[in-house]
Amino acid sequence: MPSKTSSSMGKKSVSGSGKTVTKAKVASKKKTTKPPESSRVKKSAAVSSKAKGVPVKGGLKVGGRAPAFSLPNEKGNVVKLSELKGKRVVLFFYPKDDTPGCTKEACSFRDGLQTIRKKGAVVLGVSADSVTSHQKFSKKFDLNFPLLSDESKAMIQAYGVWKEKSMYGRTYMGIERTTVLIDKDGTISHVFPKVKVDGHYEEVLQALG
After folding, report:
1. Which of the residues 102, 121, 180, 188 is marked catalytic?
2. How far is CA 155 from CA 52, 66, 69, 93, in A?
3. Is 102 a residue of the active site?
């Protein structure tokens, strides 16, 4: 005859307030926990992008139409993509004014601007910094091209460069350094994601032909 103890094997219990809850019930409760905050942020960002008719993952397609934009530059003057038709555009997105990597990238375009212009192209920098911040950054480093201010992040999201990033184990949303080349007819010819500043000017020049 089997002993009483053998019938209770594998049925560990958690006791509390005089009640016994089986291990199976405890496991089912764990399944109802909410997803991490980062997952909820990603989902909402995807829905927002989908509503605007741009790729959910922000993947710009070469040969596709560049999303339209109309933004103020460091002087407060509005720059529209529609008014640049007939010109090639080097559109570089950078995280923040007057930071080491962004300064180095901006200065490389500043120093090589004449060569880029000879190829029939204009340079535009874009970040979520304010017009005032752009004014200071441009003046400090004598930048010779417009810096567009997108504080609402509408354009930044339309181009798919507002992404989850991580630093020192902390995750946050920010601009992923990206450069987009736009042809004279408004279509995208090249996309450079996750740009490394060193040598980037040279690869842009090569892409312009």
Report:
1. 102
2. 11, 11, 6, 10
3. yes
Q: Is residue 68 part of a domain?
A: yes
User: Does 64 map to a domain?
Assistant: yes
Dist CA 146 CA 158 (whole Å):
20
Please, what sign has the CA dihedral across residues 72, 74, 76, 81? negative
Tally of domains in the chain: 1
For residue 45, the 8-state DSSP code is: H
Q: According to the model, what pLDDT value does residue 15 have?
A: 42
CATH code: domain of residue 184? 3.40.30.10
**101-118 pLDDT, tens digit each:** 999 999 999 999 999 999
Angle (CA) 143-149-46 rounded to 5° is 130
Q: Quick check: pTM over 0.85? A: no
On whether residue 128 sits in a domain, the answer given is yes
Give the model confidence (pLDDT) of 33-74 as tens digits: 444 443 333 332 222 222 233 333 456 889 999 999 999 999
Q: Residue 202 belongs to what domain range?
A: 58-208
Q: Is residue 132 part of a domain?
A: yes
